[in-house]
Amino acid sequence: MTRGKRIYVLDTNVLMHDPTALFKFQEHDIFLPMQVMEELDNGKKGTSEAARNARQVSRFLNEMIEKSGKIDLQNGVPLAHPDGLQLKNATDITGRLLFQTKDFDPSQRFGRVIPDNQILASIINLKEDRPDEEIVFVSKDINLRIKASIAGIESEDYENDRALDDFNLLYTGATELPEDFWEKVGADLRSWTDKGRTLYEFTKLEGIDWYPNQFLFLPGDEESEMRVIKVKESTVITQIIDDYRHTQHAVWGITARNREQNFALNVLMDPEIDIITLLGTAGTGKTLLALAAGLAQTMDTQRYREIVMTRATVNVGEDIGFLPGTEEEKMTPWMGALTDNLEVLTANQEGGNWGRQATNDLLASKIKIRSMNFMRGRTFLSRWLILDEAQNLTPKQMKALITRAGPGTKIICLGNVEQIDTPYLTETTSGLTYVVDRFKHWEHSAHVTLRRGERSRLADFASETL
């Protein structure tokens, strides 16, 4: 079949996930069943992200109807680009927005009258009315897509917000160089020393994508580890990185246990980098490294005023109900990772229990726990902001948080995309994946994928085999 102009039927969960989905199908028409309109109306109450999105969809629909003057029952209204909304390829939006205008009894086709069956029945009715047009149902509900396939309806997931097609293509932050690297670049290699650091400039090698703050290493040779400082048109400037594996370079008593942890500490300790994303499975040391580097630069060098830690409050199991107390006290159960890592960082303090308690009290005054729900409108000045469990955030939520950063603030996003607990988010649509992909070209950002677990031999074996 030739893929010409199509009619896309949007499910409610697509619009409540991304209100701008109405304008992402360019020259194709969009059809909204009446049941979707009912569900948007039912979901508009509240302060959740989904409720806000439902209200935004209603505003978009109202604006388009007002611009067109009236709804043509047969041809709908033009998909007019809303004022003030910045979209790529906005001029390509030439389709129309169609509404369900005919009534029917879905029980004749599907038996039980439930909302999902209402939507499927309206699509079948649309196919009968427009037999010559290709109709595609777009939903983030897997079970509903299966039911649609059984009913003979072509269906697909909403993929417009994907950062990339395959998660395995995501930028890792480090590239292994060929063994004959020095021979390949030898003819054009230029080296010099600046402020005690060794820098190299060489011609770009083919087959490698070059990004600022990308780490380069030779296989099996831990001494040859470099970071890309500048990417030019045909050449790359790199510098030899610091080695945080040795105790003389310990950060708040913590040393790197592997190559990737060494990469992470290099960018965490660099004041020129404003945002860092650390990806890795459980036990790779993401939180510990971020906290140690934060404490070293907050308590010792006083580069930052305080550490602010927040995370997405998504339950893994059943909800334990409302939590009493202040904002900080309510967030405490979610911050087990913070307290566990602080135990490690204060374990070697002198003065026995009294010394540890004094250190804990001092750290408590410098580490603030904040809820993500109250971030809108805030500005963080000279803060070390740790965003834990970032894989559970949508791209829109990530944008809302990162734009809170004021002058002198550094944001560290931690996450494991294998542990997404938010409905309708996948490895390729997670806000963390989105940030890694969108920031990789910016010279003040860095990304490191931590691969080796360092928690314990039991944890390593469990993550590999279970």
How would you portray this structure in words?
- It is a single chain.
- The chain is built from 15 helices and 18 strands.
- Strand 10 (215-218) and strand 11 form a beta hairpin.
- It has helices at 12-17, 34-42, 49-68, 107-110, 115-129, 142-150, 181-185, 259-268, 286-300, 327-331, 336-346, 352-366, 395-402, 431-439, 457-465; strands spanning 6-10, 29-32, 77-78, 96-99, 134-138, 154-156, 174-176, 190-194, 197-203, 215-218, 221-231, 235-240, 275-280, 306-311, 367-369, 383-388, 410-415, 445-450.
- The longest helix is centred in the N-terminal third of the chain and has 20 residues, at 49-68.
- The strands form three sheets. A six-stranded mixed β-sheet has the order 3-4-2-1-5-6. A six-stranded mixed β-sheet has the order 7-10-11-12-9-8, covered by helices on one side.
- It has two domains: 6-156, 5'-nuclease (Rossmann fold); 246-465, P-loop containing nucleotide triphosphate hydrolases (Rossmann fold).
- The two termini are 44 Å apart.
- It has 466 residues and is an alpha/beta fold.
Short description:
With 466 residues, this protein is of the alpha/beta class. It has helices at residues 12-17, 34-42, 49-68, 107-110, 115-129, 142-150, 181-185, 259-268, 286-300, 327-331, 336-346, 352-366, 395-402, 431-439, 457-465; strands at residues 6-10, 29-32, 77-78, 96-99, 134-138, 154-156, 174-176, 190-194, 197-203, 215-218, 221-231, 235-240, 275-280, 306-311, 367-369, 383-388, 410-415, 445-450.
